[in-house]
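Appendix B, example 12.
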Amino acid sequence: MQGAQLRHQPPAPGRKPVPRGASRMVAKEPMSARLPKANFGFLKSLFWPVVLVALGFGTYEGATRLLPYADRPITRINVQGDLSYISQQAVQQRIAPYVASSFFTIDLASMRTELETMPWIAHAEVRRVWPDQVVIRLEEQLPVARWGDESLLNNQGQAFTPRELANYEHLPQLFGPQRAQQQVMQQYQVLSQMLRPLGFSIARLELRERGSWFLTTGPGSAGPGTELLLGRGNLVEKMRRFIAIYDKTLKEQITNIARIDLRYANGLAVGWREPVAPTAAQPAVAKN
């Protein structure tokens, strides 16, 4: 019997032989991969606030140093607007205490308030214009009617009291409670527009405490003044009724009518003027 022979098998092609009695070598990770990474996120979150604070501080410091050179005295006041009732001289005198300030320290809000306390100024706008100018734009009151015996009303129904009231006696005169200024003005505008095509103007319009309205037309192409008793409510409807009847029957007799009562539901009542007695002719006296 032949002895067993051990044959050495060559390694397969492309495969390295593994040394016997030895273990495989494992590559170690680099030191940078094994150490914990630093977190810089909190630094990024602090970056922009720090930058903004630095910019703000720099701006403040720069403005503080430059302000004495940029803040100049006011040397020109430019008053704009169509002024018919007040003069630029009166405006300049009213704002004189404010002009002594410099460009940045002048109190524009107080100047505007001061100007709007003048009776003829309805609205004022005030602004700075670099480097040493203040521009004032004024809007005057537009007097539309007299309010009682002491004030005027503008087109918004707001009362104001100028000194020279005697110059405005030609305006229509409106009366009513103080709280009803705008209401009376609105009714005046509506009724005036309705009467104008007939040749009438309104000389007087009164709202009494109990809510009754009384209107007096002014003398004109439609004859002498006539009083219209309108009563309470439905003023437009009553005025339409008057216009319809006026064109048919009253137009020819309007010079003889003193008052027209429109407080009825479906008609009106007419009050005639008293006839003027003719004056007796004085006999002529002959002188020798």
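The longest strand covers residues 121-129. Residues 41-70 form the longest helix (30 residues).
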